[in-house]
Design a protein that fits this description.
heterodimer; A: four-stranded antiparallel sheet; rod-shaped; B: alpha/beta; six-stranded mixed sheet; 7 helices
Chain lengths: ~300, ~220
């Protein structure tokens, strides 16, 4: 056995020791882990909600059609050519031509002004093109609208994305707030674990003294506490991930009914594998950090007398 | 092995525990450190183990000037030293085996070698069959022997003991001292603080008598105390 395997077997021993310590004090550990789990689940859960809202608003955005009203001078043939040309663009997925004659027929049928329209000598409606952009970024849609507006045949482009932009701003604000909450609650995790480790150090004062008396370095004494912090943080992360999973499954059914009311097949998106790994990893790292701070502050004070 | 040169130790409270102590303990020697309680026996041993630092003077352990050992090197220094305490300082939540293994774990000994040494140390103190027991299930005399096994498990050249028989009856005390003699026979240097003069009268070893912070060296075969 060389020194590397010796090193790892030593760490494995310490790790299993820390783990069994968590199991040995079920109530105290449970309390700590529950607090950590709440502190981790809150920002992660909010982030999941914001991500869902963003994904949802993104799908709306892709579905924005806008209408291009053509000049009255444009005839049937050139309107059809124009529709084909626009449809051929990369950033356009579909163009529907509403012929002015059809439009008038529709208007006559649905508006209730049928008789009144007979008075008109000429069809007052222009040809219209309903353009569906090829679901790209917001900027592209605006640019496309500008280009279509600049064409000679265009009388008016009607594009209503303002409400989407407002929603985006609100979501961006929400995302920032979640970021701030994440930082604050991460600090809370560090403090909670630091405090737990401080109490643990006080409880094991006697043991620490004995270890130092038989030649244990500060590093040796510190190690089990670091692992303890790591275990607490990791367990908190796992509980947080499970909590988010349960929470999502509780609201997924009403959310689906709501989506169906809006004729949408949207389904809530939970934590991805990467996000789950990130959640567990941050729990473990924050736990380690809390333990490192606590041991740095309190361990060197305990010296045999 | 241990050399004190004009060592003074004054505690912050102003009490002077040692006022100019000089003596030399050769390698392979076994000596008793005697004197009334409060004479500074514990302080002297704490200076050897670097639990305390001298106010003035020089303490050499194994030809090493302890004042030159920085704080972070103290653990390494202590690994070459066996320490036996009056209250044995065992960890109650670990088995006898794990207690004895502690200094070897710290020195990151290989697993097989560690087991071998722990069993050898427990065998020497006659407690091999209790390796899986908790120290709490043992008698005080047995607990003290576990403490001694822990002190010698890493095979130190020097063992210091502070009142190792302080809580034991005369018969058990003699057993413990005989045990120390056996270690001495294989070359271990021992410095044992005790106030039990009756006990050490039965044994023929050098005595260092501390009185009012000074050492009065008594050679072997001196019955006058």
């Amino acid at each position: 056995m060389n020194w590397i395997t010796r090193y790892f077997s030593l760490h494995a021993q310490e790790f299993s020791g820390a783990f069994s310590r968590v199991l040995h004090q079920p109530f105290g550990s449970f309390m700590t882990i529950a607090v950590i789990a709440i502190a981790l689940a809150l920002p992660s859960g909010l982030r999941v909600m914001v991500n869902n809202a963003r994904a949802l608003s993104g799908s709306w955005e892709a579905a924005i059609d806008f209408t291009v009203y053509l000049e009255m001078s444009v005839d049937d043939e050139s309107a059809r050519t124009l529709a084909r040309n626009i449809e051929a663009r990369d950033d356009v997925s579909q163009v529907a031509l509403i012929n002015r004659t059809d439009a008038l027929a529709d208007f006559r049928a649905y508006s209730g002004f049928g008789e009144a329209l007979n008075v008109l000598e000429e069809n007052p409606l222009p040809h219209a093109l309903v353009v569906r952009p090829d679901g790209g970024a917001q900027g592209n849609i605006a640019a496309l609208a500008r280009e279509l507006d600049a064409m000679d045949e265009t009388a008016l482009v009607q594009l209503d994305t303002e409400w989407v932009e407002r929603l985006r701003s609100i979501l961006e604000l929400a995302r920032r707030l979640v970021d701030i909450a994440t930082v604050l609650l991460s600090l809370a995790v560090v403090v909670v674990i630091g405090n737990t480790i401080r109490l643990e150090i006080n409880n094991r004062r006697n043991e620490i003294e004995v270890i130092k008396l038989v030649g244990g370095s500060n590093g040796y004494v510190r190690r089990p506490f670091l692992y303890l912090g790591f275990c607490h943080g990791l367990a908190g992360g796992i509980v947080a991930a499970v909590t988010i999973g349960i929470g999502l499954s509780l609201i997924s059914s009403p959310a689906r009914s709501l989506a169906q009311l809006y004729d949408s097949g949207y389904r809530l998106v939970g934590l991805s594998v990467e996000q789950t790994a990130l959640l567990l990893g941050s729990g473990a790292v924050l736990g380690w950090a809390g333990a490192a701070i606590a041991t740095a502050r309190h361990l060197h004070r305990i010296e045999p007398t | 092995m241990i050399r004190f040169e004009h060592v003074r130790k004054r505690y912050p409270a102003g009490k002077e525990a040692l006022s100019g102590v000089s003596f030399n303990l050769e390698k392979g020697e076994m000596a008793f450190l005697t004197g009334p309680s409060g004479a500074g026996k514990s302080t002297l041993l704490k200076l050897v183990a670097l639990i305390e630092r001298p106010t003035r003077g020089t303490v050499l352990v194994g030809n090493q000037n302890t004042s030159r050992i920085p704080r972070r090197r103290i653990p390494h220094f202590r690994r070459r030293l066996g320490i036996v305490f009056q209250d044995h300082k065992l960890l109650d939540d670990r088995t006898v085996f794990d207690n004895v293994a502690l200094p070897l774990l710290i020195a990151s000994l290989r697993h097989r070698e560690l087991e071998r040494r722990v069993r050898a140390a427990l065998d020497q103190v006659g407690l091999l069959e209790y390796e899986k027991s908790s120290p709490l299930s043992l008698s005080i005399g047995e607990q003290q022997r576990v403490g001694i096994a822990r002190a010698v498990a890493s095979r130190p050249e020097l063992v210091i003991a502070d009142e190792p028989t302080g809580n034991l009856d005369p018969e058990l005390s003699l057993d413990i001292m005989k045990l120390f003699e056996r270690f001495n026979e294989v070359g271990v240097t021992l410095l044992i603080a005790t106030h039990d003069l009756e006990l050490i009268d039965k044994l023929d070893h050098r005595r260092l008598r501390l009185d009012q912070g000074k050492v009065v060296d008594k050679p072997q075969l001196n019955t006058d105390c």
